Amino acid sequence: TRTERVDLLVTDIGLLVTPPPGGVPRYGAEMCVVHQIEQAAIAIQGERIVRFGPEHDVRSWLGDTEIVETVSAGGRLVVPGFVDPHTHLVHGGSREHELSLKRSGMPYLEILAQGGGILSTVRATRAASEAALLEKASRSLDIMLLNGVTTIEAKSGYGLSLEDELKQLRVAKQLNSSHPVDLISTFMGGHAVPTEYADRSDEYVEFIVSKMMPEVALHGLAAFCDVFCEAGVFSISQSKRILEAGKQYGLISKIHADEIVSLGGAELAGEVGAISAEHLLAASDQGLGALAANGVIPVLLPGTSFNLGLKQHARAREMMDSYQLPVALATDYNPGSCPTESLQLIMMLASLNLKMTPEEILTACTINAAAAIGLASEIGSIEVGKQADITILDAPSLAYLPYHFGINHTFGVIKKGRIAVW
Ligand code: NIG
Ligand code: FE
Predict the structure, then answer these.
(1) Selecting from 3.20.20.140, 2.30.40.10, 2.60.40.10, 3.40.50.720, what CATH number does the domain 5-81+381-421 have?
(2) Fewer Cβ atoms within 10 A, N terminus or C terminus of the chain?
């Protein structure tokens, strides 16, 4: 059936590449299958895609339908808007003062144990006004959009007090309504133990559960709950307490698991039924099995292992080939372990260090990333009925993205049917 009007028609798409329709995360050999259409067009009505395919087919379907606006992609590559499913977008300050410590070889967890690292950003975030946090986060979000990203997840976790956690989450909520990029929020009161609770981490966990969570839920400030399950941060039992309590408040579990030490975070992700488990560099075979058995999506963050100078990387190939896990990729944008907004740099690192193919990388940054934040039926592929979130790239092929690195290939971005970048 034809529509009575098309608001935006994108023509002269040299190559359209998208995960196939169906809205499910993809893995294994199937994951390599992406639909490719040469000389394509996309018709959009309101916020949604109403038709796409070879341009001559779309045109004959359109007949004499009114077309409000037409834009030419100029023969370029067109893909679904990229999705970044793991960021620590809202925070105060930066940590370049720790660069020399890092370069001299001090480990990440050691800097944290000495009151720096995350705790340094906690001080800066507490000191910042809500308006200042909004301004800073908005600039990062602009960079993401200019890089072709149309939806992101954003975590709290640099407040670590009731008021400061709520402050961070309100900023994300405000940006979601004022900025073209869509944000979905994660409550991460369990990101570190604040100094005022040093040596009383169990009490802090109870504070998170009894004081923070009810407020977060009451104000509808988050969809997910995350915790940094790591040696010297939150133990398996503390992490479990936080995630299980989060579920009582309707918050879906996510977990920073087995990043540095093999603690059993992946196993816990399976046990609590998390939607995703992040990092996973040190995840055990049993942990990967638990992810697969429980439909947990591994969100890999190769920018973090790269920037921490680790020799080890997440076992992406094994996850995909042996465990049939639908791998997603994200920036982990944060002021410590991964200060970059560039998902395109992450794509290059996924190719270099995780040995993912260009098709797997596209899948990991679109439909699988969408699935990791519960949005696979709305975004993540170019599909009739889905949100018209589309990125136009100045690249001749998909493989060109991880190949020609360190620059931004984005030419244009359409978000919810509107031209956001051109
Ligand atoms: O995902 N690992 C814990 N959290 C962040 C880093 C946060 C920071 O260093 O400020 C991460 O890498
Ligand atoms: Fe993170």
Answers:
(1) 2.30.40.10
(2) N
